[in-house]
């Protein structure tokens, strides 16, 4: 008997950059170790807001991939406004108070004419193509991963048509994710999203989620079995000669308008004013896409001269920044909706031998992971004095030459261990 074949239906695939691609790239790498042969279906000509060609080198050489063309509205929208299109397709929804008339129209159209999202036109051709492929290649199990959640509609229709075993993987929630409220949804559109979400939850054979909060949310909506398989870390061979000489604090990844930790900028600003040694050593790296709202806040708090806007870098380069920094920032929006969000970078942060300084909502999954693994410290947006004390504590440890993290219990978050858990659900 050969390996069991599993078809993975994804939108994000190398050379797509960003965290969305990492989860299944790593599952695909390790599934053959557990007797499972993955076949990946992805679009032929997608509109990726960011690309990282270095990820192409991580693709298994014997991997079977299949692809079909996709028609996306962003090409047409670019004729109207390239800048606004790139912003919105990247998930950088402009600050509500500062949205231009054109941005408001684009968000309204995106929210109400493209349900569940702008990739909806790929559903029907994909179902037609994959129906034949699945029958011809005797595939019994399919996995859809979203966002974009329109990919779950491909799974829904294939399930109806072929009765395949179907796992729906939610890397993020659907109707409760923060940006959903920014899409200017009409009541009828909101109801349509909720109906589609329920159709997927109730018809999949199993739901995969990345956090306990999402599991709890979905359990209140469906009786379908739900498994939590978080994102994780992979071993890497990236070496650095030494840490930065300066007291470098780095944030890796996008910093969106509503993820603006003014409390932290205030703490840095006060320490620069009060402590000459801190002022001489402090540096802030923002690695990734940064919104204008954040940049303006940095200027407002007098941090401009201490801040380096690095911009988007390759995954390998991002790991170098993690390892060279003295502290790593993890910032989440202070909202009920974000308690379920566990950024993929958290797990890479945890193995970087660099302590994490995190700010987010009370009782989030991120807080539980950081606390249980002893990989850093976590604060709420009301904890200014405690946050300031902690930054000063880290700074003093840096001056003494003994600032490092001492994490525990990380092994269960390794990509290989997580793939083993997935493989057990597939057998």
Q: What is the compact description of this entry?
A:
The chain has 427 residues and is of the alpha/beta class. The chain contains 16 helices and 13 strands.
Question: What features would you describe in this structure?
Answer:
There is one protein chain. The protein is built from 16 helices and 13 strands. The longest helix is centred in the middle third of the chain and has 17 residues. Helix 1 crosses helix 16 and helix 9 packs across helix 15. The relative contact order is 0.11. With 427 residues, the protein is an alpha/beta fold. The protein is globular, with a radius of gyration of 22 Å.
Q: Fraction of residues in helices?
A: 25-40%
Number of strands: 13
**Low-confidence regions:** 75-92
- CATH second-level architecture of the largest domain: 3-Layer(aba) Sandwich
Oligomer: single chain
Domain module tally: 2
Q: Approximately what portion of the residues adopt beta-strand conformation?
A: 15-25%
Please name the fourth-level CATH homologous superfamily of the largest domain. Answer: Glycogen Phosphorylase B
Rounded to the nearest angstrom, the distance between the terminal CA atoms is 13 Å
What sort of overall outline do the alpha carbons produce when their principal axes are compared?
Answer: globular
**Top-tier CATH class of the largest domain:** Alpha Beta
Q: What can be said about the biggest beta sheet? A: 7 strands, parallel
The helix/strand class is: alpha/beta
How many alpha or pi helices? 16
What is the residue-averaged pLDDT? 89
What fold name stands as the CATH topology of the largest domain?
Rossmann fold
Instruction: Tell me the strand order in the biggest sheet.
Output: 3-2-1-4-5-6-7
Protein name: Glycosyl transferase family 4
Organism: Winogradskyella wandonensis
